[in-house]
Amino acid sequence: MGKQQTPRALKDNEAKAVTRMIRVSPQKLNLVAQLIRGKKVERALAELQFSRKRIAADVKKTLESAIANAENNHSLDVDDLVVAEAFVGKGLVLKRFSPRARGRAGRIEKPFSNLTIVVREVEAPAQAGA
């Protein structure tokens, strides 16, 4: 007698991946997440591959994990996947102090972020007969 299994939060044609404790501010991470929202996964991977932002590598890794979850855990077709959601949450903030002039201390905040990417399988449009 175990506890009952919780129902699946996502639809049957969706898969997600979550990365926690990414060492970047949520505002900077959200700029990269905006690049891939609503795009097909191969296009999103290409955008992240050639992005000049440092954090793009971590976002790419999370997206690849979501694609692998869709393929292996939910048997979805990789070619029909789009990035349905890419959202950023705040994590903890490390507070540090740096010495300043006249015996004062300047506060330095080192924020962390959480990233969630949801991929969805969409039906490929039917090819028009020629």
Automatic annotation (TrEMBL):
One of its GO terms (cellular component) is cytosolic large ribosomal subunit. InterPro entries: Ribosomal_uL22 (IPR001063), Ribosomal_uL22_bac/chlpt-type (IPR005727), Ribosomal_uL22_bac/org-type (IPR047867), Ribosomal_uL22_CS (IPR018260), Ribosomal_uL22_sf (IPR036394). The keyword Ligase does not apply. One of its GO terms (molecular function) is rRNA binding. The keyword Repeat does not apply. One of its GO terms (biological process) is translation. Keywords: Ribonucleoprotein, Ribosomal protein, RNA-binding, rRNA-binding. It holds the Pfam family Ribosomal_L22. HAMAP family: Ribosomal_uL22_B. The globular domain of the protein is located near the polypeptide exit tunnel on the outside of the subunit, while an extended beta-hairpin is found that lines the wall of the exit tunnel in the center of the 70S ribosome. Belongs to the universal ribosomal protein uL22 family. Part of the 50S ribosomal subunit. This is Large ribosomal subunit protein uL22. The gene is rplV.
